[in-house]
Amino acid sequence: KNPRFLGPLYKKYSGDSFGDWTVIARNSDYLFDQIANKLSDEQKRLITLTSKPVSKDVLDNYVNIDPKARADFYDRLSDVLAERTNVLETSMALPFITLNDGKGYQIIPYKKGTNKVIVKTGSKYLSGKEGNGLQYSDSLGDDEVFELVQIGNSNDGKFQFRLNNKNGVSLAGNQYTSQFGTDWSFKSEIRFSDKSNNEINNWLIEWYPGKENEKQNYDKIEIISNEKDPTKYSAKDSSGNVIKNSWINRGTGYSFADAEGVILTGWQEIKEKTYYFSSPYGYMVTGGGSDSLIDGKYYNFNDSGVLQRSAWRDLYYSDASGAFVKEGLKDIDGKIYYFQNFVPNKKELRLEDQNVILHFSDKGVLERVSNLNGEAINNAVNVKLDNKILAFNNDGSILKTGINKNANTIAYYSLEDGAFYTGWKMIDGKRYYFTNGHNTIFNNYENIDGKRFYFHEDGSVNRAGFEKIDGKLYHFDNNGVAQTGWQTIDNKYYYFDENGAAKTGWFQVGGGYRPWPLAYGYLWYCAREDGSLYADGWFKIDGKDYHFDQWGHKM
Question: Does the keyword rRNA-binding apply (predicted)?
Fold first, then answer.
């Protein structure tokens, strides 16, 4: 099977929300078997092509010499240049006239994330050339790419659009004619006559900018027992089709159907966001009330059902797992809070056994320590609470989490590590070394674990090049700063995350560069254990062959 064609067709027809991962993880026979009944004979032949790619000159000669081949090439061109997985087939009408005598059009998104489209009827492409009447073309150029702009609904509530050519001129008309042009009698509000608002909106959600976070709606749904597993549920639309890979508005809440049409339950990742669906009926949980009690913990969901990590909700705070903090100390954005029954404490906290009072602000932020008489303590003091160490300065103020500087030393403190940490720390992209929470070496060299490092004026440590810290690989420039993002090092490509750690194995990065017409979307890369990308050739990875272009994109 030809992976160049099999992969895209699998993602188009399988309904697999994890299509990219499946293409990587499964063999070609499995992928083909999953979609074989949905493929045309022509598509099956395409998948089994084993011929090698030809040069541009060979293809150019073939197309120009054979008129039939030329027509076939231009007819297929939209399959290469546009987002063919999201085609809307419908007739189009202006207020006074139906276009193309009511014959259907294909509205083909040019690429995800823009409002550009190609419009096709039969083998012809609608042209945006201005003049008398609508014009059509056998080939694609900038005249055949349009902006589809959603405008206000009609008086009867129907979706309306404008179709603008490269000059910004709209397709318009009256009861006698339609064209790209202007006239006092012209109207330019386009309707997709064969489709309901819900059908159009569900189509837009897949590609139109600003629609990506909306949920699908259907004119009518019917909840049924799943045919394969009666303990689970599915939903059918008004046409009797099982709804797949889609949100389902059930009136009293939302559910989500997977690629097999099964309504999901439990924790789920959908478009890189985390949701929870209650059992057994699969209703999405929202808010932070009683419904959000899951396995003994309350979780923080917004009104759209998305799990909120490390976020406030009124007086309550959810940690990195999304669960509300119930009890204990918590460092939030460099400020220390003490939670009691989910709410930050705002009152004085007397610790008789340590002869101190902890003072909190009206927002619940720990500010200072005093003795039991409320008097300032004139020396640095450490207080034990919740099995953690709270460190205070000489004036009684709380020691700032992170790095604290004075003339002769820098000190490191955090709730998790305490005030006496020994070892390496990455802070704001720089590397530091502390002994018992302090460092006193500046503008000088020091040997650590048999390696020689230079300590800068700010106390950060420089050993230019690659270093593995806590199992992660970093690369430091000559200033001791961990590099981030894309880097070319010794003619090899690397990608370092926002903290400076090199990506290894399979990963995605939004954007990036890929030769036109594939320059959009999220691209797949694979890096070796040393962080360098596989690039410019075929490579065997985990027993399978993969092809990468010269920039490291998986083809």
Answer: no
